[in-house]
Amino acid sequence: MLEIEIDGKALQVNEGCTVMEAANLAGVYIPHFCYHRKLSIAANCRMCLVQVEKAPKALPACATPVTDGMKVWTHSESALKAQKAVMEFLLINHPLDCPICDQGGECQLQDLSVGYGCGQSRYGEEKRVVFNKDLGPLVSTDMTRCINCTRCVRFMQEIAGDMELGQAYRGEHAEIMPFLGRTLDSELSGNVIDLCPVGALTSRPFRFSSRTWELSRRRSVSPHDGVGANLIVQTRFDRVKRVLPLEYEALNVFWLSDKVRFSFVALN
Ligand code: SF4
Ligand code: FES
């Protein structure tokens, strides 16, 4: 066991644990976009920068393994300065179209920009525009909103097992796209909608039909698969508007098959 300190809280963690995992154990929230505990580490958004004793610069919590005696500050002046700088950088090319975005109200970027963004942009140049991609009848795209966290790409490769998405080009020109002009055909494709931390990938059947805060929520169990995936049925005016996975580690984890997620369309 290693002994470390996070924001003055002493705790013991296993060797190989990252600062992000240790912070989660300690109940300390570190802002993040690309990190997801069921996906590999990409460390590309840099939102999780934290101050580490004796390190000359802020380090990404999701990709920094803990060492014995390490002291970490997640909300010190220098950590906050780094996190705010990353947020400003991420928002430079973001269209800031929350009022017309289907993700509004459940968007990680929107939520974190309240805490880490500044009220006014200093960026007066033209923003980049990324053309939308045809991902098929279930997943709708607004790729200009994408922050290139690659959660969707990693999910398809590591969990769905179908290498149907990739990141092309580099730097400011980087784009997420399906391979060779194909659509997203995996039976698990709908999970990228939940994973996308912004409004770049949204549900086509649900799109623009309700705001998330207008929906009632009921816990349920899937009638369509052999394992009984746990889910949340969201309704409005007695109509099912959306079906989402309910986290259940021993069964469906965070995931739902497209059959379970989208079959409510037939109900209506
Ligand atoms: S589409 Fe969404 S999940 Fe995929 S890289 Fe862009 S922001 Fe991340
Ligand atoms: S969450 Fe750590 S770099 Fe993205």
Task: Please characterize this protein's 3D structure.
The structure is a single chain. The chain is of the alpha+beta class. The chain folds into three domains: 2-87, Ubiquitin-like (UB roll); 94-118 and 127-206, 2-Layer Sandwich (Alpha-Beta Plaits), CATH 3.30.70.20; 209-268. Helices cover 21% and strands 20% of the residues. The protein has seven helices and twelve strands. It has helices spanning 19-26, 77-92, 108-116, 151-160, 191-195, 258-262, 264-267, and strands at residues 2-6, 9-13, 49-52, 59-60, 71-73, 139-141, 165-168, 175-178, 201-203, 216-221, 230-236, 239-245. It has a five-stranded mixed beta sheet, sandwiched between helices. Strand 7 and strand 8 (175-178) form a beta hairpin. The mean pLDDT is 94. FE2/S2 (inorganic) cluster is lined by residues 32-35, 43, 45-48, 60, 62. Residues 32-35, 43, 45-48, 60, 62 line the site of FE2/S2 (inorganic) cluster.
